[in-house]
Design a protein that fits this description.
Blueprint: H1 3-19, H2 38-57, H3 59-74, H4 90-108, E1 116-117, E2 124-125, H5 126-148
Antiparallel strand pairs: 1-2
Helix pairs in contact: 1-4, 1-5, 2-3, 2-4, 2-5
């Protein structure tokens, strides 16, 4: 049983609840994190959630995706996720990201925590992969909380 999947799901749900109340003009305002907007942050989170999931469900397809992403970066794309981004923005992007995050959390809960997965760098365990997804959600979410000027309530799930 992969307990980190539930913590990732809870972290994603907490951020989603906050984002549902985000004023529409805030989606395009730059955060203190590299000037990324909330739209760019969610594109990043959604892209890498999908990539991590593909590493589990289709390791060879994931490896091909990584090769294509690096080729796009070398071709001038600023970030890997721009090579496979959705056209959705704002609340529609939030809904897509939230739905996929909840799906991953549910499906990954029964995975052996020691199962090895390919990644952009060295392979990692499913436990480490899910902890990384939670960390990304927490850290990038904080940039949006800071942009709005609200303190984020923390929870025990951060023990990961």
């Amino acid at each position: 049983m992969l307990d980190q999947a539930a913590d990732f799901g809870a972290e994603s749900a907490a951020l989603d609840g906050f984002l549902q109340e985000l004023d529409p003009e805030m989606w395009t305002r730059p955060t203190a994190f590299k000037g990324w907007t909330p739209n760019e942050i969610l594109l990043h989170l959604h892209h890498w959630n999908r990539a991590q999931d593909r590493a589990l469900t289709d390791p060879e397809g994931f490896r091909q995706d990584v090769t294509q992403m690096f080729a796009a970066i070398e071709g001038g794309s600023a970030r890997a996720e721009e090579a496979r981004a959705t056209d959705l923005r704002g609340d529609a992007l939030r809904a897509l990201w939230a739905s996929y995050s909840a799906d991953i959390a549910a499906r990954w809960s029964d995975i052996d925590p020691k199962h090895r997965l390919p990644w952009v760098g060295p392979e990692m365990s499913a436990r480490s992969a899910m902890t990384a997804r939670q960390m990304e959600t927490w850290a990038h979410g904080l940039a949006i909380w800071d942009l709005v000027g609200k303190a984020r309530p923390e929870a025990d799930r951060l023990r990961n």
